[in-house]
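Researcher: Structure for this, please.
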Amino acid sequence: MSRLDPPVGGVLFDCYGTLIDILTDERDIATYRYLSRWLVYQGVGVAPENLRDLYTSRVREALDLTGETYPEVRVEDVFSGICTEYALWNIDTVRLGIEAARAFRAASIRRLGIIEKSKKLLDLLSTKKIGVVSNGQRVFSECEMRALGLYNQSGFVIFSSDLGYQKPDARIYAAALGKMELPARDVLFIGDNT
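Model: Predicted structure, token format:
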């Protein structure tokens, strides 16, 4: 930045592809085989192929029902519904929806790590107001950020799953600016996309 640039009072970071390097495969049947086996021990019996079809169709249906231009759903709610339908005995479907979402994420991850240059940038900008705006699921994204030591480095984290819509919807940025108590002109956004 030059002396002619306006001062930056705050910085918003994207999460995935900017702070966290991640590769997942939610289509691989191996992901669903692992989850299907894990679910049996939780009291849910559903075949891997059926689980994959149910998950993808129910996420699609839930997205369609939102009426949002850039819709987002809470995957733990999707898993809770599947667990309710395929329960083998009496289960706590709310708790199991959360745990199934996390087990699903663990099964789908092929690579997970921190982007070191971004971590250094976070350290350099520690005197600024810092926030994270992520098209992510709080149910497991917060765990990933905490495990990598990123969650507490920002003043706040906004996950699209909490709002029901995702970037590039302007409301997600407005929510972040509200938390920062800064106008958009004073905030720099750092991300790999919108």
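Researcher: Any notable elements?
Model: The chain has a mean pLDDT of 96. Helices lie at 29-40, 48-66, 75-85, 93-108, 116-124, 138-147, 160-163, 170-180.
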